[in-house]
Amino acid sequence: LGVERVTELIRTIGLFRIVDRRPVDTVRRELAADGSVRSVQLNFRYFLQQQKKPAIEGDSAQYAVAQLRLPQAHALVRGMNVTIAVIDSGVDVKHPELANSVADSFDALGSKQGPHTHGTGIAGAIVAHAKLMGSAPEARLIAIRAFGAGSKGAESTSYVILRGLDYAAEHG
User: Fold this and answer.
1) Cβ proximity of 68 and 79 under 8 Å
2) What is the DSSP letter of 54?
3) Could you read off the pLDDT of 63-81 as tens digits, one per residue?
4) At 21, phi and psi to the nearest 5?
5) In the chain, how many H helices and how many E strands?
6) What is the pTM assigned to this prediction?
7) Are 24 and 31 in contact (CB under 8 A)?
8) Residue 126 in contact with residue 141, Cβ under 8 Å?
9) Which is nearest to 42 in space by CA: 23, 60, 66?
10) Cα–Cα dist 133/135, whole Å
11) Most CB atoms closer than 10 Å: which of 26, 27, 51, 117?
12) Is the Cα dihedral 63, 64, 66, 67 positive or negative?
């Protein structure tokens, strides 16, 4: 078919490279017509969206507490015996708000990049339990880096995100 397998996940998802210079749409149609292929998706590129912080009174780091009614929610449940995979830009597992909350880490990019503020902030919104209040402070996290530094900010691809999802599924 003029493609070579670069790698695969869970024996059913593969990443392929076109090696014979045919147009992507042509190769996609040919693969889709193959009876052994269930579906074909391009390897899209994704960028993390950096949002502006809302103008509020008080501690802006605690914006979510009132919006999510966390004290009322915590009266019912706090995330005990729950594992949550955070597939983001990397997490500072040594951050005091995350102490004893990160059960595992995986770098789906295969990089050695350090922690990132976005991924750490998302992890904190979930399990913060020191000075801040997370939505599920007793949950355990699997911190998965699927977004790395790019020219337009943190970016990833469909395949790398799938690698992160695959790791998360394999690890509960």
Assistant:
1) no
2) P
3) 677 788 888 999 999 999 9
4) 65, 15
5) 5, 8
6) 0.77
7) no
8) yes
9) 23
10) 7
11) 27
12) positive
Plot region of 21 (φ>0 → left; ψ -120 to 50 → alpha; else → beta): left
pLDDT tens for 21-55 read 899 999 999 988 988 888 888 888 888 776 555 44
Q: E strand or H helix at 74, and its extent?
A: helix 70-76
Instruction: Name the residue type at position 3.
Output: V
| Cα gap 155→47, rounded to integer Å | 4
CA atoms within 13 A on the CB side of 82: 13
Spatial CB neighbours of 138, under 8 Å, sequence gap ≥ 6: 78, 79, 80, 82, 127, 129
Q: Token pair of 30, please?
A: 């040919």
| Beta carbons of 144 and 108 less than 8 angstroms apart | yes
Q: What is the rounded radius of gyration, in angstroms, for the C-alpha atoms of the chain?
A: 20
